[in-house]
Fold each of these.
Amino acid sequence: MLVAENLDGFYGRAQVLFGMSLSVGAGEVVVLLGRNGAGKSTTLKSLVGLVELGAGSVAFEGTRIERLPSHRIARLGIGYVPEDRRIFTDLTVMENLEVGRQPARAGAAPWTPERLFDLFPNLAAMRDRPGGRMSGGEQQMLTIARTLMGNPRLVLLDEPSEGLAPVIVEEMARTIRTLKAEGVSVLLAEQNLHFARAVADRAHVVEKGRSRFAGTMDALMGDAAARAAFLEV
Ligand SMILES: Nc1ncnc2c1ncn2[C@@H]1O[C@H](COP(=O)(O)OP(=O)(O)OP(=O)(O)O)[C@@H](O)[C@H]1O
Ligand SMILES: [Mg+2]
């Protein structure tokens, strides 16, 4: 579904990605693991046109997207949820969802607020509440829900478990497994190995802007050197 090869990524003149490659199959959940500053967020941004690319290619369902602007990539079906929550604080939950609405995609039932309230039950109870009067975890859920209103086929989630209370982290893991069951592919950046094991089929370990390991979660658990590359000491 998504194949990125040999990406060199830059912020101005500073190179941050060095020949990064990764792939996400249809219906797969793939996690990028890496220490602070390893290049996880930059890798996600490089897939949606938010990082300057010196070299490399990104193909999404057979279409080359590495030179396309972000809004066109979104329209092709890649949803991106950045690290910082980007809800409209003056708009209600319902209004935030409407802002994200995009046409349905062939072969998949479109997301509606009602379907999303099944997926995020605590949002259902606050549909008329302004976004600014929600907790961080609730805002995180709303950001993901609003992205799903665009009916993406692949969702990029940057540290979805970060800063959430343990019970909400469990809920987030359930949500990601439900998305997979609904046929949505997921690529997430994480530092929480426990969370990654609960949701992911495969992992890429990112170190200093390079892919250090690629394989199944089981293979990663059996590879002490790959784990040492991202676990904080
Ligand atoms: N906007 C920016 N301008 C310049 N350098 C940046 C920018 N954003 C990140 N960097 C640098 O790029 C490198 C990779 O950062 P990135 O944010 O991708 O790491 P990360 O793996 O997501 O880390 P974290 O776990 O802290 O979120 C770091 O050295 C960082 O300092
Ligand atoms: Mg990051």
Note: The domain at 2-228 is CATH 3.40.50.300 (Rossmann fold).
Amino acid sequence: MSLESIFGLKGRTALVTGSSRGIGAAIAEGLAGAGAHVILHGVKPGSTLAVQEKIAASGASVSELAADLAEPGAGHDLIRRAEEIAPVDILVINASAQINAPLAELTNDDLTLQLAVNLGSTVDMLQAVLPRMAARKWGRVVSLGSINQLRPKSIVTAYAATKAAQHNLIQSQARDYARDNVLLNTLAPGLVDTDRNAHRRDGDPEAWAEYTRTINWMGRAAHPQEMVGAAIFLSSEACSFMTGESIFLTGGV
Ligand SMILES: NC(=O)c1ccc[n+]([C@@H]2O[C@H](COP(=O)([O-])OP(=O)(O)OC[C@H]3O[C@@H](n4cnc5c(N)ncnc54)[C@H](OP(=O)(O)O)[C@@H]3O)[C@@H](O)[C@H]2O)c1
């Protein structure tokens, strides 16, 4: 067996939501490097331009779709438009909304937004894409979870609950589609240095250094590229006997 036959994604198309920046951008570049045609996604048209240029410069083919996944039905519509480009073999559910607030300070609007983007659009996209993958007898779904799905911190109570629910959905659909060679798994990071943490990182560098020193056994935040190997594994033949599971990349907790 060659490495290419295990990890190669030549001939596959991957839609990566929230790939304008951060972990999604790194995963999109990684999947393109493994041979996939990648459909990038951000909220507004043109938001993925820098990532598009990087992927195109490497010689890989790339497209872009825009959608606000907080809008009702946006997930369905995104899959429909992606399938007009090419059959979606790999769906990476990466875009999410995260509003930091303990339960006592959580507003209804904050809860509604996180439920809509993290759970509602996941339901939409899975409803639209899973029957198509099943008909083609090949599919991979990589859902970005979080260490908070397992060990929630009170500052992200609602976000953590949506991530736990998202993984629960991945598990139920993994069971339903296992015999169709459509495999769904969760990639669950710990702290990753992205825009999401900019308020903490850029506001008080000393506090950030102390935070990262104590957040995990390695004493540092991950770089988004450290998520790529596991994402390629979960998108490829390599994970052919794995479904409904989570891979935790936390630096040790
Ligand atoms: N960073 C961490 O420490 C960490 C830890 C655990 C889990 N995660 C998970 O990993 C994933 C990526 O996180 P990240 O830190 O890379 O995120 P990020 O840097 O904050 O980027 C968020 C991405 O999601 C998109 N997005 C946000 N709201 C959207 C909406 N309403 N509709 C459509 N797209 C939307 C953004 O698009 P625009 O650029 O167009 O706004 C952007 O591409 C998320 O699921 C997150 O929950 C992150």
Note: Residues 18, 20-24, 42-44, 47, 68-70, 94-98, 117, 144, 146, 189, 191-192, 194-197 surround NAP (CB under 6 Å).
